[in-house]
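help with this record:
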Amino acid sequence: MLMAVDDKENNADAAGGSSHGGNIAALAERAGCAPGQIIDFSASINPLGPPEGLRMLINRSIEKLVHYPEPHGKGLVAVLSSVLGLNEDQLVVANGSTEIIYTLPRILGCARAVIPVPSYLDYERACRMAGVATVQVQLAEADGFQLDFSELAGLLQEKDLVFLGRPNNPTGVSFVAEDLLELAAAHPATFFAVDESFFDFIAGESGLLTNPMAPNLIVFRSLTKFYAIPGLRLGFAAAAPETAALMRGQVMPWTVNTIAQEVGRGILGDCDYAEQSRAYTRERRLEMQQMLSTIPLLNVFPGEANYLLLKLDRADVSAARLADKLLLSGPCRLAVRVCENFAGLDQQFFRVAVRGKEENELLCQALARELSQGRRTIHRPKKKTPALMLQGTSSNAGKSVLTAALCRILLQDGFRVAPFKAQNMSLNSFVTRDGEEMGRAQVVQAQACRLDPDVRMNPVLLKPSSDVGSQIIVNGRVVDHMSVADYIAFKPLARQAALNAYDLLAAEYDVVVIEGAGSPAEVNLKKHDIVNMAMARHAEAPVLLVGDIDRGGVFASFIGTMEVMAEWERRLIAGYLVNRFRGQESLLSDAYTYLEHFTGKPVLGTIPYMREHGLPEEDSVSFKAGWHENVEKESDGAHVTIAVIDLPHISNFTDFEPFLAEPDVRLRVIRTEAELAAAQPELAALILPGSKNVISDFNYLRQSGMVERIRRIADLKEVEII
């Protein structure tokens, strides 16, 4: 049932300003902590975070800051027109939906505003500032705060302005478009302003954004909630051309800055992001609603957006008091939105945003702890085994060796530690006691932990058999030979196998040291990632980013890697390790300071260049780069020379590394017929190594002329050919 209530000032206006959630600086000051320590449930922002291309769009727009922005966002309006199917003269862009809200009461010539409550506070405040009287219409709690259009119709007068939320804030309740369109048609002298700032979280078309639009209908949206960019301030309104022109005449020129316009043009129409956001938010909201519903004396009002309205059913606890406990005490600093200053709600109401799964669980556990008087009502998920992950700015940055080193350090400190790498691509494999195959790097790391190699440490192994295909080994057993396209299709199964292996392994140890592969900045692979940031997120592992300073460009590599990361990925980075440094570390201090100022992440360690550490290399990158040629040995004295043919698909190349430790052996790697001819006079032995693609590698030997050269050497019977 709807009921008109007295027009009273809310608490926010009585204080001379507006009161909203999300003031993270004020919350941190009150809690006496850094803003980053607060988990903010008071502001309802897309829990998936901003689109991955946000940083790119911002960076690309920086060069345009030397010019004024388009006064009324013409380019952004054109994109909106295309996405929404509306004419450009129906659209107005603004500095967030707030600017639209404060503009409408000033331009429409309405005698009064009708506002169903509870609703967004600024509807009433905007009307007061414009000198427009307001009538609050109480939505009934017993009806789940649903809007009854037939009852609303009975309260309307000519020259009214009706503000409606769809879905409403803070209740999360929406309504059917046809109901409003019928009401608007029946009351042509009344304006209806519909706030769809959270509508993008609901699947399906609005039904109100039509071409043409009803002359007395204005629909406006904030882009900052759904796209998780509240700091940019961006919104728009859609209306009949005449009404849109009135708004455009009152909105200040240049109200939307250049960066906001460029970001808006780039993110609108990102259908994949929109679908993922809706699905993710709905899944998290339903999970959260279920958990909250198990807490005694707490009522949950089902909603359709990315927040839930809650009511305490305890007279001895107010929402404000509960909010203080959540923010100021307990293991986590949690901020919720107290709703007592919403008209129609009392001190027992509060609102919580839907966030990520783990954060939602933390909030529900905290609420259960405060409200259940010691009774545990929510199952606490088992805490993840502590983990640390090393990723690199490139292949061969030194991740494998550093992972082994950290494993041994943790072992020496008394921890039961195990290594893990979800997916390895290498022809350098090892067979365990059980006859199962895994990457040799994880075998070395297992040895550092004084453990027997276990295929759970490397559940997925790819052994390239051509430029476009590999043998796929999962949990130590060959699955098949696959092309790149086939493996991408298989990856969901590979990912699940990797996650299962990790969970089983981690459950048996105190800590896991995880190694990534290649670089997390490989944008062509990120969508199907199972070994870098996706693995770090599953393991809840902070990431150390390793860069090889010896090859040059390490600081550009760190910055470049960070710049192509999504925001959730950046949050996982704990800092940097500068590997293979030769020289005086103090000379790097300015660069370290610059790097931290640019990215917000510190350098946590500088590892000196280590010669001949004696650990097997993970893959053939170093071998083919000629690392063996840098091994220093005495040039004089008796010695034998052994040559190894470098095949394109060479397997288990580390079998030859023991020769490097022998002072009287010189190892030469041969890549051309000319090199083999030049080396022939001094050779004691010639090794043809194993191959993962025998036919292809034999063709390589024949085409390069080495087959004939090897035959000649064999005919002379002076060189052992193995």
Notes: The domain at 3-46+274-371 is CATH 3.90.1150.10 (Aspartate Aminotransferase, domain 1). The radius of gyration is 32 Å.
